[in-house]
Design goal:
Blueprint: E1 6-10, H1 14-26, E2 30-34, H2 37-46, E3 51-55, H3 63-73, E4 78-83, H4 88-96, E5 101-104, H5 109-144, H6 150-163, E6 169-172, H7 179-188, E7 197-201, H8 210-215, H9 232-235, E8 240-244, H10 251-263, E9 265-267, E10 274-276, E11 280-285, H11 289-294, H12 300-306, E12 309-312, H13 323-337, E13 345-346, H14 348-356, H15 362-377, E14 382-383, H16 390-403, H17 406-423, H18 428-435, H19 439-451
Parallel strand pairs: 1-2, 1-3, 3-4, 4-5, 6-11, 6-12, 7-8, 8-11, 13-14
Antiparallel strand pairs: 9-10
Helix pairs in contact: 2-3, 5-7, 6-7, 13-15, 17-18, 18-19
Length: 460
């Protein structure tokens, strides 16, 4: 059964209050009433309401003050202001302070009912839009984590498990491996997905500003503190706070961060007042945290607090089988972004080169390479090796020269191809699948061997 909307009518005039209450009860609402703002605040503290309809001029706590308190303490509750002293200035002030509507007396009951219906229709659409946005963000964050390797499957499983909890998470991996994407996926698949997702790069904050940035400061707390500033922990209240590169946090700040994790409270610079916060902490690092603890650069107790649920993100070179899917993902992403009219594909030789490369910059480097290739290929439908960064070719040549593996790699490649052909009784489709290459690449290799006279009789 659908719950009736609960309204609170606040009006110091008994006759007006009674008329409003009876009319709104008749319209199907669950209605309570209060004679002034003070009584209304007591009732709001005892029960949940969907909408407050309040007169403006009242003794003790007036309608404008009531509006301010309601929007601060009960932000999900709507407020209508009704008054016989309506001016444009007062209406603007009320709307700026968060009132949904400002109605001037006299008004008809049918007019008020229509305005209330419009408000609840608006809130329904707003909530529906919010839910659709949440689902879209949730799906998008998962789609950004691309791969079919066992390592990626394990990470997706870990995200599913930890998203259902409020445990701190420590995500460890080299730069460019996608640690922030994993943090976002945890947030958007958790019960906190309606709350904020706040990220701070610990390596980008000067040590002198660290405490103020994280915990905020009061006006006059230090030179140039001209106003009260809400820190990032407060901004993240009700949501998730990502501490990117946690290893860079100054040792002097680590004790204060530990206190937040233990007590769930922060204190602004220049204040002694403790502010309770409800925040889920996710930290990322590209460092070996245990080594930093051993060297005295990171507090052991803070490390244990953060390392409740560690997620290790492998470098791209350790999941090279994911490169084709990542290439396809980035090609689609940047073709759409740059409004490419041509549907593009990647040349087999170009893809083979990308799978041979070591990717020291991991996924971020691969993304930049594909982004540039999309731009350079312009009107061409096929991305080729020539469209990649020149430095990739130089690194490839340098590696070949440094290790002098040209002949051994060529020989090993040839032996593998002929072994696969023997196992599949010269079925090129099956052999290509066994080798993890395309039939076209296999055909090109065999043509190359044929020209060099390296094809055994059994395959001629």
């Amino acid at each position: 059964m659908k719950r009736r909307k609960k309204l609170l009518v606040v009006e110091d005039d008994y006759s007006m209050r009674t008329i409003l209450k009876e009319a709104l009860v008749e319209a199907g609402y669950d209605v309570s009433d209060a004679k002034d703002g003070k009584d209304a605040l007591e009732m709001l503290g005892e029960s949940e309401y969907d909408l407050v309809i309040t007169d403006l001029m009242m003794p003790r706590v007036d309608g404008m003050k009531l509006l301010e308190i309601v929007k601060t303490k009960y932000p999900g509750v709507g407020v209508f202001i009704i008054t016989a002293y309506g001016t444009v200035e007062r209406a603007v002030e009320a709307l700026q302070k968060g009132a949904y509507d400002f109605i001037t007396k006299p008004f008809s009951i049918s007019h008020l009912k229509t305005r209330i219906e419009n408000y609840f229709s608006y809130m329904y659409l707003k909530d529906e839009n919010k839910e659709l946005k949440r689902r879209l963000e949730k799906e998008t964050k998962y789609r950004e984590i691309v791969g079919k390797s066992e390592m990626i499957k394990k990470i997706l499983e870990q995200i599913d498990i930890v998203a259902r909890t409020d445990l701190p998470v420590l995500i460890v991996g080299e730069s460019g491996t996608g640690k922030e994407l994993i943090a976002e996926a945890i947030h958007y698949n958790s019960d906190r997905n309606d709350g904020p997702f706040i990220r701070v790069n610990c390596s980008a904050i000067p040590e002198t500003l660290f405490e103020s940035t994280l915990f905020g400061h009061e006006k006059g707390a230090f030179t140039n503190a001209m106003r009260t500033f809400k820190g990032m922990f407060e901004e993240a209240n009700g949501g998730t706070f990502l501490l990117d590169e946690i290893s860079e946090i100054p040792i002097t700040m680590q004790a204060k961060l530990l206190r937040v994790l233990q007590e769930g409270k922060i204190t602004r610079v220049g204040s002694t007042r403790e502010i309770p916060i409800d925040v889920r902490i996710i930290a990322t690092t590209n460092q070996d945290m245990r080594q930093l603890v051993k060297k005295g650069k990171f507090r052991e107790d803070l490390f244990f607090r953060l390392n409740v649920f560690p997620i290790h993100v492998p470098p791209l070179r350790e999941r090279i089988e994911d490169v084709p899917l990542l290439v396809e993902h980035f090609m689609k992403k940047y073709c759409e972004k740059y409004n490419s009219r041509i549907e593009k594909e990647i040349d087999d030789d170009a893809l083979e080169f990308l799978m041979r490369y070591d990717w020291p910059g991991n996924i971020r480097q691969l993304e930049n390479v594909i982004k540039r290739a999309i731009l350079l290929s312009a009107e061409e439908s096929v991305i080729k090796r020539k469209h990649f960064h020149i430095e990739l070719d130089e690194i490839d040549r340098k590696q070949t020269k440094d290790f002098d593996f040209v002949m051994s790699i060529a020989e090993m490649e040839r032996k593998l191809i002929f072994t696969a052909l023997r196992k599949t009784k010269n079925n090129r489709t099956h052999a290509a699948k066994l080798l993890g290459i395309s039939v076209r690449t296999l055909r090109n290799k065999l043509n190359e061997y044929k020209k060099l006279g390296l094809i055994p009789e059994e395959f001629k």
